[in-house]
Amino acid sequence: MKTILIIDDDMHIGNMLQELLEREGYGVLRAYSGTEALLLLSQKTPDLVLLDLMLPGLSGEEVLPKIKNIPVIVVSAKIDVQDKVDLLLGGAADYVTKPFDTKELLARIAVALRSTTAQATLLCYDVITLNTANYTVAVGEIEVKLTRTEYAILKCLMQNANRAVSKSALLEHIALDTPDCTEGSLKIHVSNLRGKLRDVSGKDHIEAVWGIGFKLKK
User: Fold this and answer.
1) Which residues contact 46 (CB under 8 A, 6 or more apart)?
2) pTM (predicted TM-score)
3) What is the pLDDT of residue 218?
């Protein structure tokens, strides 16, 4: 199930969007301010974000550049062409003006998710390449054999390469791929993964972030 994060402080619009998306089979997350959205994104990785611009705290324009590796559709009442151009050049996948037609919005969501799926076959970070199509990992030109759990951990870290991933978020993210991983065994799996990558490249690619979890490093 694809999950969509709605970032909008308008309760009525948010509720309408949630009902619409859930009826189409999407999972839904909600955030009502820019600050709350960034906190939620530090813990979870949705497949797509619907972002309003007029938010309390951090505005949508401030939140957009902080969202990495997730397609963002801006949904806003602002209709100025230059605003649209700036946001699209700034990283938004699409721009939908309020009020919007729900069928058009659903079509734009489907296109954005389809484009992301096509681009997500290869994940790259520094010298590490992860192929989601055939479940292989290479450091440079050398393929590295990983267990199912190690692969799931590395995939999650690479999908969140620009921020630390908490232990709880990591466990939740990989639960479907590797239900045998527990909080007690996570550190061992990460240590084994770190060692396999280091054996090939000669350097550590995963660092423990005290009080948070783990993060990739170059």
Assistant:
1) 3, 4, 5, 29, 70
2) 0.58
3) 82
